[in-house]
């Protein structure tokens, strides 16, 4: 195969025809989807769109529950876009960002757990239809907390019950899974997390995937500060994707919070190590980004301070994948170091 087109390497059957799982036509599942389509706002519905991405990129992401969690509408929408991209021979196939992002978070969660010796708390803020607790064996010694709006968590639990009852090989991989219904724009979300069993002193990985830019600037900063404060108590790892300003200012954008320099922002909040990746970088590639002329490779070859593409004047919309960490030892070290200076 021409490696420059590898990101388009969807299996033939997906390209032509969308095969929906039987479960989607059962009465219970159809009723749950009526609720989603009629009652949820775009914020909650984004959970299903993300799941559709993982379902349709199943040749690189092993998430057997994603189809049922995505639902027919979102699977069909994305499948149509993928078909159009194939037809137009597009350099970037719809959903490739979601695929790379998912694989990046998976790999960084595993690496962080290795650094902790395997056991930790993993908190997914805006967990949506994420199924890591069921699909990542590296979570076997972990207490996982999924935080999202009550309606999202209720419908997800109901859909998972149906899916797990009808499939033999699927089971919880994590040591425990606790769902915490709350709005992280409110001041009491951490308290609710703690009341649900989260222990601030235990090593923790915070996963903020596809969530932070839905918040306002002050709400996002508040959430990031709450997480950063935990660096003074325990080993803390934050994994998050950030949009730059250009990405949030496109017309019809539903995004608010942005950071052009999260690698400067996070240390100012208390994290000691920060690594930023862009889609297409060595650790955010996964064999899906070979074409040097695809949008992502062109972008990451431009300095980050460049705001518009030199070729056509369009805004440089970037998604940064960021891992940050901190611990009390590091804080002591930095304080001592500062005193010496
Ligand atoms: C794009 S989805 C991403 C879901 C998940 N992280 C993933 O990658 O599959 C965003 C999720 O954040 C949730 N969300 C957005 N704002 C939230 C808030 N203020 N409090 C709790 N959850 C929120 C939405 O309900 C939705 O499930």
TrEMBL record:
Keywords: Methyltransferase, Transferase
Entry keyword Transferase: yes
GO process annotations (BP): methylation
UniProt key word tRNA processing: no
GO MF annotation, one: methyltransferase activity
Pfam families linked to this entry: LCM (PF04072)
Domain of life: Eukaryota
Family: Belongs to the UPF0677 family.
Official protein name in the record: Leucine carboxyl methyltransferase
């Amino acid at each position: 195969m021409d490696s420059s087109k590898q990101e388009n390497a969807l299996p033939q059957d997906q390209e032509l025809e969308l095969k929906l799982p039987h479960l989607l036509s059962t009465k219970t599942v159809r009723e749950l989807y009526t609720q989603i389509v009629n009652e949820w706002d775009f914020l909650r519905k984004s959970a299903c769109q993300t799941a559709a991405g993982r379902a349709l990129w199943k040749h690189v992401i092993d998430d057997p529950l994603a189809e049922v969690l995505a639902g027919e509408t979102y699977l069909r929408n994305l499948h149509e876009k993928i078909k159009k991209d194939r037809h137009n021979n597009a350099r970037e196939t719809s959903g490739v960002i979601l695929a790379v992002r998912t694989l990046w978070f998976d790999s960084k969660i595993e690496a962080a757990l290795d650094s902790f010796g395997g056991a930790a708390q993993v908190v997914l803020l805006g967990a949506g239809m994420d199924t890591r607790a069921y699909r990542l064996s590296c979570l076997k010694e972990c207490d996982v907390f999924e935080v999202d709006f009550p309606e999202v968590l209720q419908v997800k639990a109901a859909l998972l019950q149906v899916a797990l009852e009808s499939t033999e090989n699927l089971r919880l991989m994590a040591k425990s899974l606790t769902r915490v219904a709350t709005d992280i724009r409110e001041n009491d979300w951490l308290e609710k997390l703690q009341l649900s069993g989260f222990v601030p002193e235990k090593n923790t990985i915070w996963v903020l995937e596809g969530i932070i830019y839905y918040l306002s600037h002050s709400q996002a900063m508040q959430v990031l500060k709450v997480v950063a404060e935990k660096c003074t108590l325990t080993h803390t790892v934050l994994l998050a994707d950030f949009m730059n300003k250009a990405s949030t200012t496109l017309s019809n954008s539903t995004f608010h919070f942005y950071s052009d320099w999260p690698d400067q922002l996070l240390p100012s909040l208390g994290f000691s190590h920060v690594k930023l990746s862009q889609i297409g970088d060595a650790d955010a590639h996964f064999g899906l980004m070979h074409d040097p002329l695809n949008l992502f490779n062109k972008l990451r070859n431009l300095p980050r301070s460049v705001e518009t593409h030199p070729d056509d004047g369009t805004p440089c919309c970037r998604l940064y994948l960021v891992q940050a960490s901190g611990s009390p030892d590091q804080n002591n070290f930095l304080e001592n170091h500062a005193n010496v200076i």
